[in-house]
Structures are given as C-alpha cells and as structure tokens.
Amino acid sequence: RDLSALFEQAAERLPALLPAASKEQLLYLYARYKQVKFGTCNTPKPSFFDFEGKQKWEAWKALGDTSPHQAMQEYVATVKKLDPSWNPQTTEKRGKEGKTAFGGPVVSSLYQEETIREEDKNIFDYCRENNIDYVTKAIRSKKVDVNVTDEE
C-alpha cells in the first residue's frame, strides 16, 4: 500500500483510540503528524505558561530533520500498536460487526461535586468548601459536635 494513504487512514483511526493512548504516545503521534504535514519545526517556542503547547512544540522540535517518510512509518506503527486489530486494508465504514473495543463516542468532563442546599449542609460540607468562618463559628458555638463522623 501507498505509505501516504496508510498514514491518512491511521490519522483517521486515531480519534477512536484516544482513550487507550497515553500522554506520551499522543505527543509522539502529534510530533510525527506535524513533521509529515509541515516538515521540520520552525515555529517559535510557546510561552512558559502554555504547558501543553510547549510540550507539543518540544516533541516536534526533537524530531529535527527526520524525513516525512520515516515519520509516517513511525506514526502508522504506533497506531497499529494502540489497536492491533486495526486493518487498514478494510474500510472504516463498517457495520456493527466490524466495531473494535475502542469505538463509540467518548465524553470527558471535569469532576463536579453535587450541589448541596445551604440548609442541608453540615460541618463537613463547610470544611470541604474551606469555609473557615462558618467552621470556626460552629466550633465556638458548641452546638456542633466536631467528633461525630459522617459517611466518609
């Protein structure tokens, strides 16, 4: 198969593999993708506070004068490593029987604690909120037993 076509197929396959890939693997793939599409890194280094941008830039810059051909080979090999069942000879638009364990939508969000109504809060809730004023007032009032345990 033509390496360029194989590379494009691997790039199309990658989004479904994101949950299985480590941060290092993603940086590795990013750098090779940029090397293939844009050549040697010639952009200015991102600012100190752009941590993700800096990591990406450093990964790409580290490739130096690596040839696009070699970068494509390494990219395809890594995608195959992430999904050994991936067969670039078959098309990705298959029915249910062709789905891999990595398929399906992926949704990610930051952890969010449930909100508790003010009247339902106890001293532990105020501690979690770091509400020092309320905790201090509650302890001084002697109306709250600070030695009682909650479900956690």
Automatic annotation (TrEMBL):
GO terms for molecular function: fatty-acyl-CoA binding. It comes from the Eukaryota. Residues 3-88 form the ACB domain. SUPFAM superfamilies: Acyl-CoA binding protein (SSF47027). GO terms for cellular component: cytoplasm. PANTHER family: ACYL-COA-BINDING DOMAIN-CONTAINING PROTEIN 6. This is Acyl-CoA-binding domain-containing protein 6. The gene is Acbd6.
